[in-house]
Amino acid sequence: xxxxxxxxxxxxxxxxxxxxxxxxxxxxxxxxxxxxxxxxxxxxxxxxxxxxxxxxxxxxxxxxxxxxxxxxxxxxxxxxxxxxxxxxxxxxxxxxxxxxxxxxxxxxxxxxxxxxxxxxxxxxxxxxxxxxxxxxxxxxxxxxxxxxxxxxxxxxxxxxxxxxxxxxxxxxxxxxxxxxx
Length: 181
Prior knowledge:
α2 (about 30-40) packs antiparallel against α7 (about 90-110), α2 packs across α10 and α9 (about 135-145) crosses α10. The protein is mainly α and about 180 residues long. It has 10 helices and 2 strands; from the N terminus they run ααααααααβααβ. A two-stranded parallel ribbon has the order 1-2.
């Protein structure tokens, strides 16, 4: 079976992620929060690096419980910085807490994070290939930054929208390629 060129076939985690998760519609807030945090840690790194640390991130971040993460204080920040199993970038760790707080505010204002995203998408999904950003990712990124989030530039948001299935980008030679979703 052929897969997207970026899928490392020697890494079973990556193959499973590619085949069963990436690009598949999952608009539940717990998943959207997890992916937002993981994608923000990807900035400057490969997705495979983050994926390989995902289980450790889940443990370190209380299974991405947004209410818990939003309440993290300096002791938890220092604990995360000292954890060799995750990305220990202090600014990204602090941003993840700030982003959790903004995520909660968005949930309160819109009813869910997905409802917020639909203000940009009108509930539509796109098939796009060979892009790393788009007017959609630029608009979402700009708005999230204005709301106080960090490490969520247009490229990170584009990857995020691909991960959660708003943008479907399996390549033409991939067995999951579709022209419509």
